[in-house]
Fold this sequence. Notes:
- One of its GO terms (molecular function) is calcium ion binding.
- It comes from Gemmobacter lanyuensis.
- One of its GO terms (cellular component) is extracellular region.
- The structure is a single chain.
- By secondary structure, the chain is mainly beta.
- It is built from no helices and 36 strands.
- It starts with 6 loop residues before the first strand and ends with a strand.
Amino acid sequence: MGNTGNRLVVVGQIENARGSSGADWIDGSELNNRILGEGGNDTLNGDAGNDVIYGGTGADSMSGSYGADRLFGEGGNDTISGGDDSDTISGGAGADSLSGGANLTDWVSYAGSDAAVNVTFTFGTTTTGRGGHAAGDQLNGFNNILGSDFGDQLRDSVEGAVGGNYNANIFDGAGGNDDLFMGGANDTAYGGMGFDYIAGQNGNDRLFGGGNGDRIYGGAGADFMVGGEGNDMLFANEDNDRLFGGVGDDVLHGAAGRDRLQGDAGADRFIFLKADESTVLSTGRDVIVDFNRAEGDRIGLAQIDANGAADGFGSFTFVTVFTGQAGQLRVADTADGQRVLADLNGDRISDFAIDVLGNGRPMLIESDFNL
């Protein structure tokens, strides 16, 4: 095309089009188009097909229409809308107006940002971004976001009922030390590389730390948490959570509900803060999947008051059988491993229990615990 601005409609078997330095108007076809706006304030529209559109410099207007499109505003204050299907939109530099589709499966991407971004989604209203390429951006209709290579803050402000899925998000922090705060639906978070902080809220969330040492908090709902590489800290909360530490010396905290704790490789710590975090009843009894003495694993009970309702803070005494003294801890064989039992009040009845899986595993001894 020339350099003064043109109108081009892509038809037939033509797939690709390149604009000029002027203000071009290019409409795609039903094929998978690749459209380059180049310079000027361009109007670039995909059609059917999975299109890739680059605005170039200038304040461009871009639309994906049908198909799973990828739209890159690049320079300038662009206006970009995804249309139908699952699109990925990157405004680039400039204060952009970015709109996802009605299906709420579109992604806004800040992978190319030159600094950390700060974005808080507010369902049903316009979000104003801050920092890096997000500065001044106006976002509508997105549930999913890809962060930059820097320390981003990504947040969903909506907290719905547990198990609701009206606003399910996928957050990917990418590189950097990110803070990811999920919302009220069944969300998915990926910390990526870096020392990340990830917090679920209501909903049955899937939270993945990635590389380095991450801190992951489940929130309400039955959550699945994976630390990945590095020395991670994983915190269960309400409901029946599943915690997987991954490679590294991880710390896994049980909580209310029947949680499943798996440290994987490394010297892991399985920590309990209160006696009611793992109950005698199976519905609330936590399970340690892969305790390994040779790797340096320990079960941490030192923060539980072994005196129960009595005055003062007491520590557990490891015994072979309960003898009627408060604060005793013993281990019993089960069909699929061993069970840690604690008597808090001296009535010879267990008040606290943890299942440790593994037939043929050496019997737990006092040094396996931090009491």
